[in-house]
Amino acid sequence: MLERDGYPAGVPCWIDVVQGDLDRTMAFYGGLFDWTFERRTPPGAPQSYAYAYLDGLVVAGVGSAPTGDAGRVGWTSYIWVDSADDAAATVEANGGRVLVAPADIPRAGRVALCADPWGAPFGLWQAAENRGAQVVNTPGSWNFSELDAPDVPAAGRFYGAVFGWETDPLDMRAGQTAGMWRLPGYGDFLAQRDPEIRQRQAADQAPGGFADAVALLAPAGAEGPSDGGRWSVIFAVADADAAFDRAVGLGATVVTPLFDTPYTRMGTVQDPQGAALTLSQYHPPPPPSD
Question: Exposure string (b/e) for 36-64, b if CB count within 10 Å is 16 or more?
Fold first, then answer.
């Protein structure tokens, strides 16, 4: 696995989940993904927060809600920005809302929580010591974030204005055409450390421009809420069936049973405290016959 040390502006770089019982959160995700944890907040703090590690590398954050606060039910995806303050102003200028104003997090960075015009929360991450997830796209780590959008063209305009994203169609679900968010030039950034990335993707018959992909996009309604938007997270697993069984055995409930796409076998569960997560096994199509 390639260790990450930073992301370009406009690329999702960090995820976390804040729930009522941090010990229960760590027990579930430790059991599911073999994560280990390091508590980052001092004893007695009103809110506890820990980094999750996979093979010694940081993959996510998990936290407890402050006293009297139910916390954010689901996972939050954060996008790397050069200035959280400037990005928050851009969010508001384009019809979004700032839910939590930019603030400095000790030993991490400057962070804000926002929502798009349809209410889907996402974070802004101006990095300091925390340079984002150190490993992604390997079994047990974050693979992609996906937006279920009630108005796909308008979402394209909003996220294009805020982060410079573009959209392309991507057939990832049986009977449903989804899309991918691309940040032009991201593939060039990745190729600096992984020169063969485009050749591997071509061999796997990845869609054109996939090296620039930063997130996935789907119309809300089929699996998302019909009256608003939602960001969700996808985790890579080596064996979707085994991971699904393990999640259920640890107390998860099934949201979407396992199904196959042209590139993955995947399904969605809800953890014991209500956060949804998708488990995805990558299996590219076989090479075309001569």
Answer: ebeebeeeeeeebbbbbbbeebbbbbbbb
- SS3 of residue 201 by DSSP: helix
Half-sphere exposure of 35 (CA within 13 A, CB side): 26
Structure tokens at 122: 């996402």
**Kind of pairing, strands 264-270 and 253-260?**
antiparallel
Query: Which tokens in the block code for residue 97?
Result: 């809302």
Helix (H) / strand (E) containing 19: strand 12-19
Q: For the whole prediction, is pTM greater than 0.85?
A: yes
Q: What is the pLDDT of residues 87-130, one digit of tens each?
A: 999 999 999 999 999 999 988 999 999 999 999 999 999 999 99
Q: What domains lie within the chain, and their CATH numbers?
A: 12-127 (3.10.180.10), 142-282 (3.10.180.10)
Amino acid at 106: P
**CA–CA distance from 148 to each of 49, 76, 120, 207, 221 (Å)?**
28, 14, 9, 21, 8
Q: Measured between alpha carbons, how far is 51 from 117 in angstroms, rounded to an integer?
A: 30
| Whole-angstrom distance, CA of residue 275 vs CA of residue 263 | 25
- Segment holding 247, helix H or strand E: helix 240-249
51-93 pLDDT per residue, tens: 999 999 999 999 998 754 544 668 999 999 999 999 999 999 9
Strand, helix or coil at 85?
Answer: helix
* Apex 96 CA angle, 94 and 102, nearest 5: 110
- Rounded Cα distance between 257 and 255, Å, is 7
